[in-house]
Amino acid sequence: MSQTVVSPLKPSALYTSCAKTELDFKTTKTLKPLDGVIGQARAVEAIRFAIGMRHEGYNLFAFGPEGTGKSSTVMRFLHTQAETQAVPDDWCYVNNFEDPQKPRALALAAGKACPLRDDMARLVDELKGALPAAFEGEEYAQRKEALETELKTRHENAFVKLQERADASGIALVRTPMGLGLAPVEKGEVLTPQAFEALPAKEQKKRQEALAQLQIQLEGILAQIPKWEKDHRDKVRALNRDVTKRAVGHLIEALEQQWQDTANVLTYLEEVREDVIEHAADFLPSTDGPEMQVGLTAHHRPGSTGNSFRRYQVNVLVDNAGCCAANPGPSGAPVVEDDHPTQPNLVGRVEHLSQMGTLVTDFNLIKAGSLHRANGGYLVVDARRVLMQPNAWETLKRALRAGRVNIESPAESLGWASTVSLEPEPIPLNVKVVMLGEPMLYYLLSMHDPDFKELFKVAADFANSMDRDASSVMDLARLMAAQVNTEGLRHLDRGGVARVIEQAARLSEDAEKLTTHMGSIVDLVREADYWAGVENKKVIAARHVQEAIDAKIYRSDRYRELLQEEIRRGTYVIETKGKKVGQINGLSVLQLDSFSFGRPSRITVNVSIGKGELVDIERQVELGGPLHSKGVMILESFLNARFGQDGPMALSARIVFEQSYGGIEGDSASSTELYALLSAIANIPLKQSIAVTGSVDQTGRVQAIGGVNDKIEGFFDVCTQRGLTGEHGVIIPAANVKHLMLRHDVVDAVKAGLFSIWAVHTIDEGIEILTGLKAGEQGANGHYPLGSVNYEVARTLRQFAAKVRAFGEGRAQPPAPAQINLKVTPGEDH
């Protein structure tokens, strides 16, 4: 038995400490706080570019892992840029007096919308006093009385003349239930029919002729009366308009003088003037009789909210100057973050009121959306939230393509039946949209939505790690100083900063990198501050940072402790001493929310003579993933390439992840499976005190895997609870050495010679550690050295092939070259 070629890693390779010489300060109190983001130069440049491009379509999609500072970085740059830009116009909706169903949009200089609203409110109040006063004044009463007298005089003159003619002819003008009539009289008394028949015939004839002529005259007068009354009403209406016009005129003219530089407001005020004149009755007391309201029209529109004065109000949709108490804002362009981007929240909505069981609305119930508020500036939305809201994504794209905000209800946009509502005039849109999301969302939208790349031409890719060098270390320390100052925390001493930096490397899963997940670093500093407070210390030291790390793990690792307990009690079988043929300890990582830990898995292999059928049972029953199936096929390829050149591979192998009942995915256990397979074929036992992780290629080269720290620590914990003997250890790919940032107890055990970690480049290096035998190199004659692992594997395979040939003597066709028959029980990612 020969010595292994690969030596265990030195303790210095297992953990890259942050030397105190790298930190030229005593505490973060002496550092200049860093106000900004670190490790995101590429993303920052993309943000600057997107902000600077004023052309259409150069909206920004910022993507990266959660906690890398996407939102804070974007908002910081947007606010800085927005402060240098002009404040955009205010927007308001006013009544369209010609078509109230289509309210008009008015653009006003920033800060002018609220004054216009207030001016119109004062105008209505003044009109409520001025118009009644004008109609109650002496001048109006005199002029109206003159008109009434004129009408009365016309009536009286006509009937007086008729009465005179009738009197001269012995005819009286009498009033009957049917109206006015004529009747013969004698001595002031109306003649009865009998009395009239008693008159001489000549007198009767004379009276009848007079009656006929007077009747014609009476009918003529009666026919003229409606014309006279219409003429009277026209004159009263003209009088009312004249009085109203004079009462309104000076009030409107004062406003026109005030708004003389705003053409659209002047046009609106002229429309208000005409509407007030037309509906002056709305301003008069309701107790006025009909004689006061002759010629005055009251306003009423079906579906309106009922208050006629609301039509003169100004609905301030967007106030960019912050003059409205409900919408204070800074100078510059607006920066709006919509955390609930539904369709109505994006483009606005028209609200309704219920009156007498009927939904009614008017332009005052139009509400702004985030696109309105961000118009002329920047809108920030979360991509996932937009995509999850019905029709919100399509509505946002439609607004960006059209360059205007069109308020529409979800029902209308989907073509469903809807309550009759308003059709507000669309508002021109000039906005830069920034979407925040995950990388997967960005790439899915790029592939499946042809509009996406036309509307979001700039991508800001936030990295999840940065190089660990002197510059980044000091930047991270200054960032901690900024957090301490901002949140009022205790300052960190040099040791505390060093421990945070080391944890940043651990979180990045790379000793040569630091995580850019600033959310985790910020939380760690806050929690370390808590533990420093528990000890009543004035500064945060390294032990406080470690306490924060340990406490967080303790809060999350109940499931890990349960699993360790099951291993300790023998329920979950893991062997950590002795040697066994075809059995090996593999390693996997379990992820529970943000907490991950390593777990050993017992892998066993049985081999026999076979007829070359390759069966991946996990794949066939849809429990094995494609990556695991790829790993299995690589094992077959490796064996065929190394041992199947001179004869058929008459082998059937069954590989099992024992006591694993979930799905299997990933190829990080393929080297482990190969070691067990070689052991089973060669009948050479493997050390059970050593666990293995790593994938393998077709040539036998061991490749890097993820979660190497968790995997090592998971097996270390199992060995520790059983007692470390110096025989325990883990084999990892050599490519993973730079990722090692192991717990201090693991490093201490290695220093004490109680635990070992080997880094291998090839399967041959690993099999020598596991067996204590040489792997053996193939000689020029094609054979392996006697007693080597490869020699025993080749010898067994030749024996299998010979038995197949012996069994098949006398057959017309020899059996087909056998392949590996793999049977994999349900397992998990390894």
Automatic annotation (TrEMBL):
Alphabetized InterPro entries for the sequence: AAA_32, Lon-like_helical, Lon_proteolytic, Lon_Prtase, LonB_AAA-LID, P-loop_NTPase, Ribosomal_Su5_D2-typ_SF, Ribsml_uS5_D2-typ_fold_subgr
Keyword list, A-Z: Hydrolase, Protease, Serine protease
Enzyme active site: S668, K711
Gene Ontology BP annotations: protein catabolic process; proteolysis
Enzyme Commission (EC) number: 3.4.21.53
Catalytic function, reaction form: Hydrolysis of proteins in presence of ATP
PANTHER family associated with the record: ATP DEPENDENT LON PROTEASE FAMILY MEMBER
Name of the protein in its database record: endopeptidase La
Organism: Magnetovibrio blakemorei
Lineage: Bacteria, Pseudomonadati, Pseudomonadota, Alphaproteobacteria, Rhodospirillales
